[in-house]
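Kindly inspect this one:
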Amino acid sequence: MKNIYVIGIGLIGGSLALDIKAQYENSKVFGIDANATHLDEALKLGIIDVKATLDTISEADIIIVAVPVDVGLVLLPNILDQVGEHTLVIDVGSTKLPICEAVEKHPNRRNYLATHPIAGTEFSGPLAAVRGLFREKTNIICEVEKTTFKLQEIGMELFKRLGMRIRYMDPKAHDKHIAYVSHLSHISSFMLGKTVVEIEKDERDIFDMAGSGFESTVRLAKSSPAMWTPIFKQNKEHVVKSLEEYIVNLTHFKKLLEEENYEEVFNEMQNTNRIKEILIGKK
């Protein structure tokens, strides 16, 4: 594996590039990004070896597509138009059904592996890239049977070297479940941040009272709106459903407080405490 093309040199694409360079000593990482500044930064930081364009992707052994999901829908079919039979194309987007459907009947569908590494931070751009981001993280792979076996093997070896855990999932199920455990979390964080920022207009010292609990809860509100708006758009059906259920629970909790039913308030929190065991089991 010599020529690695990474399209989108942000947190995920940049971190993948760093780990690939560390694991494959003879590899050469080519970077493609619509933002020229990102490319300059990535080259200066040693994340990529060469700045490239889409005109040369036919020379790639592996192409990693790490762009916003709306861009990926347009870009992936064009990439598959240009690849040879031995090129593996991987995307790492947070929604899987729309992009799988977009290339379902493409003649080079067998070159494509649909993945979603469950990893990241609230930061973006090449400066956010870090080594080891994917170690011990779950990588969801969808429709693996549609990728030719030899290219599957190349992808699995890459993920193994990066220390990922592999989970196979139908793209519809992926998008439903990720709405609850990721997309809803980001909306909650954005809206909590919005609520506090609006209050802060009149109460200037409110942030002096903000502790680690607040900071950890709103951490995701620092995420890129340019990345997350297309995700919410593509997964609207499941995101709306998760929001409806979340709002029901919030409304119920508010009602308990209004009725001064503190015993039931305690029970609600006590019953939810079992999430500690669930998350420990996940590790």
User: Anything to note?
Assistant: The beta strands are 3-7, 28-32, 50-51, 62-65, 88-91, 112-117, 138-142, 165-168. The CA atoms of residues 94 and 182 lie 9 Å apart.
